[in-house]
Write a structure and sequence with these properties.
Elements (H helix, E strand, L loop, with lengths): L7 E4 L4 E3 L5 E6 L2 E4 L7 E11 L6 E2 L9 H6 L23 H7 L4 E7 L3 E7 L3 H7 L4 E8 L2 H11 L9 H6 L7 H9 L17 E2 L21 E10 L2 E4 L3 E3 L6 E6 L1
């Protein structure tokens, strides 16, 4: 899509990516797919059209839950269950999963436990083959898998154990400012291997090298102000970069995923 084709309209969802150097960010909006890297360095206008629709069932709503869902979908869909953010509390084996077939497809499959550097070193987990998307969504600049386990619950149990020795959260402001110290993840991994419970020792995987990730950023910001479409329906600012799920402007940042389901018009 040419940058001369202005005014794309549709409902926001999270970014998709092409894993290049730097990462190529794509945003589906209506019938268009915007290659956002081509808009960096230009003034972008985003206008919230005062309509929100659930990203699952599509019905019109006044507010979203868990980044894009209506309240019924938030309370009923398995992807919104508490065990998604607390995987060690997975209850699929108890027969109480909101959707056992969904659980089989998304949770009862191999998962990686990984180390990543976003605002600092953190431990996390993700489905096997989903790791690059997970790392880019978190704004990680360096990452490596350290264990492969048979399901999400075991990954969560190992992650919780390792949080005694390394953080499991990202400081999104530091991540966006690029306030990051790169570290030797192989050395950190080897230190953590000594802390693995015996039951998890067989799941260790020893990659030869980590993955470094480069983002399309013209200049680093020193202060982070968050734009909010609920409070400011029109944003018009120079786009200077993209990282994680954030569009980075001269005057602030916009978390695209947070406003999933919002109908907007975007132009450059």
């Amino acid at each position: 899509m040419s940058d001369k084709t202005i005014a794309c309209r549709g409902f926001l969802h999270g970014f998709t990516h092409r894993y290049e150097n730097p990462v190529q960010y794509l945003l589906a909006l209506g019938d268009d797919t915007i290659v956002l890297n081509e808009w960096i360095g230009k003034t972008v206008r985003i206008a919230f059209l005062e309509r929100i629709a659930c990203i699952s069932c599509g019905r019109s709503i006044k507010k979203t839950y868990n980044s894009g869902y209506c309240y019924p979908c938030f309370t009923k869909l398995p992807e919104n269950d508490l065990c998604i953010v607390k995987p060690h509390e997975c209850h699929h084996h108890l027969g109480t999963c909101r959707d056992p077939e969904w659980g089989e497809a998304h949770c009862m499959i191999p998962h990686y436990v990984y180390l990543a550097v976003s605002s600092g070193v953190k431990v996390g987990l993700t489905r096997k083959h989903n790791e690059r998307k997970r790392w880019v969504d978190q704004g990680a600049v360096r990452a490596i898998p350290i264990a492969e386990v048979p399901n999400r619950k075991l990954a969560g149990e190992l992650e919780v154990h390792l949080t005694q020795f390394v953080a499991d959260k990202t400081d999104w402001r530091k991540m966006l400012k690029g306030d990051v110290t790169l570290v030797d993840l192989l050395a950190v991994r080897d230190e953590l291997y000594a802390q693995f419970p015996d039951a998890f020792q067989p799941y260790r995987i020893e990659e030869d090298e980590w993955l470094d990730i480069v983002y399309p950023i013209l200049e680093q910001i020193t202060k982070v102000k968050a734009y909010n479409l609920d409070k400011q329906s029109v944003i018009e600012d120079e786009l200077i970069g993209i990282k994680g799920q954030y569009m980075i402007f001269k005057g602030g940042v916009l978390n695209i995923r947070k406003f999933s389901g919002y109908e907007v018009e975007m132009s450059v």
